[in-house]
Write a structure and sequence with these properties.
heterodimer; A: 112 residues; mainly beta; 7-stranded mixed sheet; 4-stranded antiparallel sheet; globular; B: 111 residues; 6-stranded mixed sheet; 12 strands; 0% helix
């Protein structure tokens, strides 16, 4: 049973397209996150949600729109994809902001 | 604003030797401190955390970390490294409702 699952695992798309990445956690956690890992492995938080409410939006372009239909899901929609959006995107969840986070396996997005 | 620094991009160590991965942080208030490990093409896995109490924290796979408040450091250690410990290690303080990750340190353990 995968605790935090993301789909798809790989995503190759052309510039200008719109795409979505889905995330689900079966841990009963209240808090979910999206992180972006660039080619140099630097990991940066994008969004965090608590009980379906947006808590943190870290100066992410508004082309990125997270949606949390319920506590177990946090999807990421990206409009008008750009070359610089190519990265690995990780979803994570935790019970509280102060407890350990569980990460999905990542979605490698390549924009061509 | 909070920040974290991992001064070494890579640490090389021979199998069986002690391993140390350095981390210093800057946060306001009392931080919660975490270490995570990332194996190739995988998500991050939790190793250990410091919340309060004993400055020496023990975690998974034989790792431990020492919290030093005066030096604002939280170095990760393992007494005897294994080849299978080769991975990318991230230090992450938690404050202000978010985890802030350092740039990561790649550990290479040679047989």
């Amino acid at each position: 049973d995968t605790a935090v699952s993301q789909t798809p695992k790989y995503l190759v798309t052309q510039m200008g397209n719109d795409k979505s990445i889905k995330c689900e956690q079966n841990l009963g956690h209240d808090t979910m996150y999206w992180y972006k890992q660039d080619s140099k492995k630097f990991l940066k938080i994008m969004f965090s949600y608590n009980n379906k409410e947006l808590i943190i939006n870290e100066t992410v372009p508004n082309r990125f729109s997270p949606k949390s239909p319920d506590k177990a899901h946090l999807n990421l929609h990206i409009n008008s994809l750009e070359l610089g959006d190519s990265a690995v995107y990780f979803c994570a969840s935790s019970q509280l902001f102060t407890t350990e986070a569980f990460f999905g396996q990542g979605t490698r997005l390549t924009v061509v | 604003a909070q920040s974290v620094a991992q001064p070494e991009d890579q640490v090389n160590v021979a199998e069986g030797n002690p391993l140390t991965v350095k981390c210093t942080y800057s946060v306001s208030g009392n931080p919660y401190l975490f270490w995570y490990v990332q194996y190739p093409n995988r998500g991050l896995q939790f190793l250990l955390k410091y919340i309060t109490g004993d400055n020496l924290v023990k975690g998974s796979y034989g790792f431990e970390a020492e919290f030093n408040k005066s030096q604002t450091s939280f170095h990760l250690k393992k007494p005897s490294a294994l080849v299978s410990d080769s991975a990318l290690y991230f230090c992450a303080p938690s404050a202000g409702n978010k985890l802030t990750f350092g740039g990561g340190t790649r550990v290479l353990v040679k047989p």
